[in-house]
Specification:
157 residues, mainly alpha, two-stranded antiparallel ribbon, 71% helix, rod-shaped
Length: 157
């Protein structure tokens, strides 16, 4: 990661250091150039130049049309860079979420398959037990009839 640092002067003539982390190496030169322009602006304010900000009641300097246009273009470029970064970050977040959801979906499908397989095995076991139960009830009924027949024969003697 690259960083750029610059010294600025606040209204009380105190030096304030500003460090700017740069994510993209290609922008380092551009940011260093902007920092140097800002430093030049600060050094001009110390020397009392006409564009130093000492003129005017609102504390802002009077800039030429070209200077304002250049500043606006720089501001617009920086805004566009931030917008592209936000868009890129949003896309990365969406991609991560999509991958996470795909993995979760795959896991849920696997679990569903296991549950369906267990359900089938349980259903088959239930069918077998019902069939066995019917056979046992039929045998019990037959034995019950034999018992009744034997008791009637004994009661006759």
């Amino acid at each position: 990661m690259f960083t750029s640092a610059a010294m600025f002067f606040n209204g009380a003539e105190e030096a304030v250091e500003f460090q700017c982390p740069v994510q993209e190496p290609g922008l380092t030169a551009t940011i260093e150039e902007l920092m140097s322009l800002l430093q030049e602006g600060n050094s001009n304010s110390n020397s009392g130049s006409p564009n130093s900000g000492s003129e005017g009641s609102n504390g802002r300097g009077v800039y030429s049309l070209d200077e304002r246009k250049r500043r606006r273009m720089t501001s617009n470029r920086e805004s566009a860079r931030r917008s592209r970064w936000r868009k890129k970050r949003h896309l990365e977040d969406l991609t991560e979420e999509a991958n996470r959801l795909k993995m979760e979906n795959r896991e849920l499908k696997n679990r569903l398959g296991l549950v369906a397989q267990k359900c089938y095995v349980t259903w088959r076991e239930n069918e077998r037990l019902e069939s066995e139960s019917l056979a046992l009830w039929a045998r019990l009924s037959d034995l019950n009839q034999v018992l009744v027949a034997m008791q009637t024969i004994r009661s006759q003697y």
